[in-house]
């Protein structure tokens, strides 16, 4: 009952805010209509999800959080857009606290020695009105390799809660963890790591 009352109160608050300022709830879903500019990652709503095949039985998932970084978004000349993000490796989280600790250890990501993973774009190529291929350099576990993201624009507009102009994207890719020296239990635990990234960015200035 407490959860239900809390949820109802939160919903009422959100509805009230939107009613008080309906313009703030307007979201554009055409990337060309999003505002160009320099954006910072909004870490509270940015997630890097991963999935690996576990002993052939299940696709086991986890997530990295507390992402930081910047996006230079140029909607008139998308090829001039730039993305740079940093992911703290020790933010890794699954449904098992024991596994979380193992993933941070030197047998896996070695978060103490390699505390950050980074991605810096080198090219952006539109493949549709709301879709692009973003190529860049991924650094993980002390190894840097080129990787490609399939990026889809979700929407942009003023966040009705904090009044900041926000643009959101979803990106997917698959990398081989052995390419980055993370080889524990390959091939029993899959070498292919499927990434699904929810990226929220707030425009600065």
UniProtKB/TrEMBL annotation:
SUPFAM superfamilies: YceI-like. It holds the Pfam family YceI. Keywords: Signal. InterPro entries: Lipid/polyisoprenoid-bd_YceI, TTHA0802/YceI-like_sf. Residues 1-25 form the signal peptide. It comes from the Bacteria. Residues 38-202 form the Lipid/polyisoprenoid-binding YceI-like domain. This is Polyisoprenoid-binding protein. The lineage of its organism: Bacteria, Pseudomonadati, Pseudomonadota, Alphaproteobacteria, Acetobacterales.
